[in-house]
Each structure stands twice: as C-alpha cells, then as structure tokens.
C-alpha cells in the first residue's frame, strides 16, 4: 500500500479498538480475539503446558 503526503500510518496495539472498527465497517470476514485472550492456535491448552 502506498501512502500520500500527510497520511499518518496507525498501528493499533490493542485488539479492542479494531473490533469497534470492524463492527462499524462490517467486513465479510474478521479474525480477532476476546480481550485478554490474544493467542490464536488450533492446539489444545494441554499441548502448550510445560508442567
């Protein structure tokens, strides 16, 4: 993507703000997380446990 003079690229470090944008813009597909649950995988919890 190209930026024009005066454009300010923005990085949302928090997932809650983009969720609000997704709800307002209603894209056909969104992959996101619940606050406090930011790791997405197909592995079950027990496969990631070190104990």
What do you see in this structure?
This protein is mainly alpha-helical. The chain has helices at residues 16-25, 45-48. It has one domain (1-51). It has 2 helices and no strands. It starts with 15 loop residues before the first helix and ends with a helix.
Write the layout of secondary structure elements.
Blueprint: H1 16-25, H2 45-48
Q: What does the average pLDDT come to?
A: 78
Query: Radius of gyration in whole Å, from Cα?
Result: 16 Å
The SSE order reads HH
- State the secondary-structure class: mainly alpha
Total strand count, please? 0
Give a short account of the largest sheet: none
> How many individual helices?
2
Low-confidence stretches: none
- What helical percentage do the residues reach? 25-40%
How many domain units? 1
Give the overall shape.
elongated
> Gap between N and C termini, in Å?
44 Å
Strand content: under 5%
Keywords:
27% helix, elongated, mainly alpha, single chain, 51 residues
Give a short overview.
This protein has 51 residues and is mainly α. The protein has helices at 16-25, 45-48.
């Amino acid at each position: 993507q190209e930026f024009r003079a005066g454009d300010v690229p923005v990085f949302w470090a928090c997932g809650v703000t983009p969720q609000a944008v997704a709800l307002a813009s209603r894209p056909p597909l969104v992959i996101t997380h619940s606050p406090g649950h930011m790791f997405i995988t197909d592995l079950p919890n027990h496969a990631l446990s070190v104990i």
